[in-house]
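Study this protein:
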Amino acid sequence: MKLFGAPLSPFVRKARIVAAEKGIDYELDPSPSPLTGFSDEFLALNPLKRIPALLPDPARPDFAINDSSAICGYFEKLQPSPSVYPANAEDYGRALYFEELADTELAAQIGMGVFRPVFFNVATGKPADYETAGQGFEKLLNRLLAYLEDQLEGKTWLAGNDFSIADIAVTSQLFSAAHAGYEVPAARLPRLAGLMQNCLARETVAQFIEADLRFFNKMGMQLPKQVTA
């Protein structure tokens, strides 16, 4: 099994966490990236130029599974236990909703408004645009992150009583903001900050965040934390 996609992508991160939770082995090809481009081999798998992509059988390059949600769904059927999707119908529906919210609204606002102005600039030798990133994160705090904070009232996890795809998808995006220097402020959003810490307490999550930080250090990228009240 071969998974394609740059590890810093929150969508690749989401798929890798699910695979780790289930003990699914795969080979990672980290080369496809919006920053470095896409090879003809990758475009043959996914002409939409999006990551991740999965080849369940590398001997069958004509059959690829594209999109992180589709890949996570495939992993769930391939290895049903432990499940990352709630069994209860209401919790299952909520989990899918939070996954969609993370993959669309949260991804767009963090990816373009916070992560890209910092990381992409630094990676291409330009000064980090903290003014744009700060404005993007403040917008997130006032609306979408405040909404997620409300959804966690009286809860440890977003959908039901257990860690699920909802928590994986949402925090995968939030870790990208943290990498750019913008962490969820515990004083302002204690429940959401707590969710981040609960996820980091899992080795299946922490291993990838630690790998990200090692990559930044290796590349000499110093991205200072921004203080947001």
Notes: The chain has a mean pLDDT of 92.
